[in-house]
Amino acid sequence: MSVLIFADQAEGHIKKAAFEAISYGAKLAEQLGTTAEALVLGTVSDDLTQLGKYGAVKVHQVNNESLNHVDAQVYAAVIAEAVNTTGAQVLVFSHNQTGKAVASRTAARLKAGIVAGACALPDTSNGFVVRKTVFSGKAFANVSISTNLKVISLNPNSYTIHQGTGTAELSSLSVNVPASKVKVTAVNKVSGEVPLTEAEIVVSGGRGLKGPENWGILLDLAKVLGAATACSRPVGDAHWRPHHEHVGQTGVQVAPNLYIAIGISGAIQHLAGVNRSKVIVVINKDPEAPFFKAADYGIVGDAFEVVPKLTEEIKKLKGQ
Ligand SMILES: Cc1cc2nc3c(=O)[nH]c(=O)nc-3n(C[C@H](O)[C@H](O)[C@H](O)COP(=O)(O)OP(=O)(O)OC[C@H]3O[C@@H](n4cnc5c(N)ncnc54)[C@H](O)[C@@H]3O)c2cc1C
Predict the structure, then answer these.
(1) Which of these, 112, 135, 249, 276, has the minimum number of CB atoms within 10 Å of its CB?
(2) How far is 202 from 252, CA to CA, in rounded Å?
(3) Pairing, β 13-14 against β 9-10
(4) What is the mean pLDDT of residues 194-207?
(5) Ligand 1 neighbourhood includes 286 CB (under 6 angstroms)
C-alpha cells in the first residue's frame, strides 16, 4: 500500500515534471501514513537513487529499451501491471503530454477513479477529495474518488518541488511488455530550443509584432532569458511562427514561472492556455488591452521600443 509516482523520462533523463510529481506524491504518502515509490520505464542515464531527494524511498525500473519511446497503450499496460505488482493504493502522474495520454488509459485498465489536472493535495480528512482546474483554468472543482485505487494527474507547475537529501533504493521490476501496435517511421526533432511545455520562462508574441520579419526582438529577449518562444494563434495560422509555438485553448497549454506576452490582446482563448503561469508580464501599446487584467506586471508601450530596452537591461544585469 504505497503511493506510486510515474517518473517521466526523455532521452535517458528524468523530466522536471517528475520531480514535482514525486514531491507531491511524497507529501500525499506522508498524509496517508505510507511511503512514496517512483516508477521509471525504459533505460536511463540519470542516477535514479537521486529521486530519493524528492521523497521517493524506492524506485522501480522496467529496464527495457522498447519503453524508451512513449506508446500510450503499451505504457498503460506496463504501469497497470506495475501497480498490481507493487500494491500501490494511489498512482500519480504529471498532467503533461505523456501523463494525459497514459493516466486515463491506466485508470480504465485498473477500473480506478481518476482526477485529471489536479492542482492541490487531496483532502483526506473525510474520503479522498482532489481539487482540479476546470473551464480552462477559470474555476476549480473538488472531485471525490471512491474506488480503492486512485489515480491523479498533477497539473505542471502547481506544486513546489521539495528537495531534501534522501537516497532511493533501486528495484528492477520484471513485467510483461506487450508489443506495440504503432510503428514509428520517422522522428523529427526540434533541436537547440527550450521545449515549450518544460520551459521556466516563455516569451510569446502576437499580431502586434506586425510580421515575421520583426521576430528578432522577441528572439533576442528569449535568448538572454534562456526562454522558450510561443505565439498567439493568428501568428501560427499566418505561418509567421511554426504551429507548435501556438499557445491557448486550441494550442499548447503552458504554465511557466514567467510568461511575457508581447503585442497580444489577451483574448479568452489565448488566456485559457497561459493563465496557469506563475507571473504574467504584458507589453502592449493599448492600455485597454484585456491582457492587462490578467497581468501581474504590465508595460504600456510600443513593443519595438520596449523589448530591445528590456533585453539590453537584462544583458547588463547578467553582465553580458
Ligand atoms: C474557437 C477559437 C479558438 C481559439 N483559440 C486560440 C488559441 O488557442 N490561442 C490564441 O492565441 N487565440 C485563439 N483564438 C483567437 C483569439 O480569439 C484571438 O483572435 C487571438 O488570440 C488574437 O491574437 P493576437 O492577440 O495576437 O492579435 P490581436 O487581437 O490582433 O491583438 C494584437 C495586440 O497587439 C497590440 N499591439 C499592436 N501594435 C503593438 C505594438 N507596436 N506594441 C505593442 N503592442 C501592440 C494591440 O494593442 C493588440 O492588443 C481562438 C479563437 C476561436 C474563435
Answers:
(1) 135
(2) 12
(3) antiparallel
(4) 91
(5) yes
